[in-house]
Amino acid sequence: MNSRRMEPIVAAALAAFVWAAFFCPWLRVESRPANDIKKAFGIRGESEMVRVSGYDIPEMANAKGSRVASAVGQLFSSDAKDVGKRSYRVWILPILASLLAVLTWLSVTRRRVALTIAVVGAAVFGLGTYKILAADLDGVLFVVHVASGLWLTLVAYLAMGLLNFRLFILANESRQGQSHL
Q1: How is the beta sheet containing 142-146 ordered, strand by strand?
Q2: Residues 6+ apart with CB under 8 A from 92
Q3: Who contacts 159 (Cβ-Cβ below 8 Å, separation ≥6)?
Q4: Spatial distance between the Cα atoms of 62 and 105, rounded to a whole number of angstroms
Q5: Which residue intervals of 63-110 are DSSP H helices?
Q6: What are phi and psi of 80, to 5 degrees?
Q7: For 142-168, what is each residue's pLDDT tens digit?
Q8: Confidence grade of residue 57 (pLDDT, cut at 50, 70, 90)
Q9: Distance from first CA to last CA of the chain, Å, rounded?
Q10: Is 124 exposed, middle or buried (0-12, 13-18, 19+ CB in 10 A)?
Q11: Cα–Cα nearest to 131, from 30, 56, 27
């Protein structure tokens, strides 16, 4: 099968992967006092309070008086104001993945579109990774751990970017091959 016919299928699979990861746990919140008590008694393991998927983030962020929401909110925004309203932005990730897959499908031979998708995929991965690594998730009452769902989402975006960068290179090679004829 022609390699260029496979890229749109792979892009669609990556978008589906992002959607699946959106419903997997993105964050794991633990209680620091409970962990300290367990350690004092020599009990191993951590006291997990809640697992939060991408889908759950807006609901949790809009819950009244949720201290967990403010701890998690700093991961997605440096400003704690209006975390509830801004939490719905998390839906951009699976929707954008679908849009990028459709654009990949429609423009396999278009170099600029492939390069744009490659840059967007790499940017989502880079910015997301930076936000995770730069966030102070170790609070007084809560400890927030990034779970596999969020990492899988970011890796899928990186793969989408690399896939489209490959399409960009292939389009350049075929263009150069045509100019020599």
Answers
A1: 48-53, 25-31, 142-146
A2: none
A3: 14, 121
A4: 37
A5: 67-76, 83-86, 92-106
A6: -75, -10
A7: 778 889 999 999 999 999 999 999 989
A8: confident
A9: 25
A10: buried
A11: 27
